[in-house]
Structures are given as structure tokens and as C-alpha cells.
Amino acid sequence: MKLLVLAAGIGSRFGGVKQVAGVGPRGETLLEYSLYDARRAGFGEVVFLIRPDIEADFKATIAARLPSSLRYSLAYQTREMLLDDAQRASASACGRAKPWGTGHALLCARGAIGEGPFAVLNADDYYGRAAFEGLGARLSRIPGEFCFAAYRLDDVVPSQGSVSRAICEVDPEGYLERIVEHKRVWREAGRLVSRLEGGDVELSPEAPVSMNLWGFNASVFEGGARAWSAFLGNPENYASREFYLPDIVQAMMAARAIRVRAVAGSVRSFGLTNPEDLAETRRRLAALVEGGFYPSPLWEEK
User: Fold this and answer.
1) 3 Cβ partners below 8 Å, 6+ apart?
2) According to DSSP H, which parts of the chain are helical?
């Protein structure tokens, strides 16, 4: 099984290239801990999807520390990829500056993934070993189904600042029914609050959440290509709207092309969204290392 790491995000709220921020006791990045857990769960090859302009930082801070036995390749995402001449002209005329999003990133990596089952994750979140083990077992046993790691909302919202979260509706059999993107979720007076167009709403702390750790097979690329074509067919999308990976999953579910099984994630997940997340992330990883869950340095084999 392969692992696709989405590491092309610009990190605008974090204030820098958060994918290469050192958070471990020896300067390890958050991504490296995910790679460590994924290897133990049976993922044998990694594809890193990056922007060309962060390649030097990536190689200097991550690739240089990886063990020689870890097989990996690079794929790239730019704003011009997967657009024809007319679509590029439309984006330019609208002054498009933002990247196209995680759905576009997935499609950019198609050539590097091939035909087998694979998992997709963000480079700036901590997922926990149980999530990788659950996805790996599911993909090995039922490669024809999609799956995702589900977390409790209360476990994936930091104590300070706001984050975007994909709230999921799951049926009694454990299959995904619907995803609702909440662009701003925060804690207020002991509650979890989301700001929607109609006003602020309180969310259940038990609500299942996707943190963008998915298990797919190659059919996601065909479904994704159709959803991407539909996205580009709307002129309103060219200025700043993003094409998200859950948009692909939602479109394929609506077409009854797939079923998506929820797999339990770890007890707590955390990541780097806002600058204040850095100290908390370092504290939690230090505790895991001190508890013997991870070695330090993380990669002893070179």
C-alpha cells in the first residue's frame, strides 16, 4: 500500500511553511511521526505532493532525515496543472492567487500513485497509530471500499484559536452519509461553536470528524476527474473557491459509486493551523517520547 502525503498547503494562518516546522525533541516534523506510524501499519511506499517552491526546504528538513529503507517519490502541484488554455485564461482574468485545494492536489498525484489501494493524509496533522492501523487493515481486507479515520470533534479542536473541520454523518452500520465543511470552529465558554452563514451554532462534542486521512483505490481518480470538470464548469469558482478532497467523496457517494467506511481514529489528534499550536504540539510529542511511544531520535536507521 502507498501513502500520499499532501504537503503543498501554503500555511497562511500559521504564518509560514508549517510542513517543515520542527516539533519533535530532535527537530522532527509532525509529518515524520505520521510516516513512522504508517510504516508500522503496513504502508511501504510514500508519495509526497509538494509545491516546487518548497522542494529545497522539504529535502533539507525532511527527506535528509528519512531512513534509506523508506521508498518515496515526489509529485507536484501548481495552480496551472490540470487546466486547459481557456481555463488558465479564465483563472488569470479573475486574478486567481489561491491554490485549487486538496481535491486538485489528489488529482495532481495520479501518475505517481498507480492502481493499488492507498491512503491520503495532510502533512500538518498528527493522526495517531491506531488510525493508520485501522485504515491499513481495511484497505488490505476490502480494497474495493473507501474508508476514513473518524475522530470526536472534542478531540480535534485546540484550546485556542479556530480551525476548519469536516463534520460527518455516519449511519448505524458505520458508513459515511454526508460531510459538512465547517470553516471556523472554536471553543467558547465550554462549548464548541461554528460560524455558518446563518449565524453561530453549537456543535456536539461527539460529532464524528474527518481530518483528511482517507483510504482509497484508483477509482477515486475517475470520480475526481468528473467532479473537477464540474467544478471548472462554474465560472464563479475561478476567483478563489477551492476544490476539496471531500467534494470528490461527496460527489461519488451521490452517484452511488462508492461506500465509505468510518474507522476509529486515535483518542486525540492535533496539528499546526495557528501559530499558538506550535507550543502545544511540541509539548504533546515530548510527552509521547518520554512515555516510550516514540524513540528519540525518531529515525535511528539511515
Assistant:
1) 35, 38, 43, 45, 46, 47, 118, 119, 120, 121
2) 30-40, 55-61, 85-93, 102-108, 110-113, 129-141, 219-232, 245-254, 277-290
User: What CATH number is associated with residue 176?
Assistant: 3.90.550.10
The range of the structural domain enclosing residue 102 comes to 2-290
User: Quick one: how far is CA 109 from the chain centroid?
Assistant: 14
**pTM score:** 0.90
Backbone angles phi, psi at 271, to 5 degrees: -170, -170
Are 128 and 152 in contact by the 8 Å Cβ rule? The answer is: no
Q: Is 197 helix (H, G, I), strand (E, B) or coil?
A: coil
**Matching residue, cell 465509505:** 260
**How far apart, in whole angstroms, are the C-alpha atoms of residue 227 and residue 247?**
8
Q: What is the pLDDT of residues 78-129, one digit of tens each?
A: 999 999 999 999 999 999 988 899 999 999 999 999 998 999 999 888 899 9
Instruction: Please count the structural domains in the chain.
Output: 1
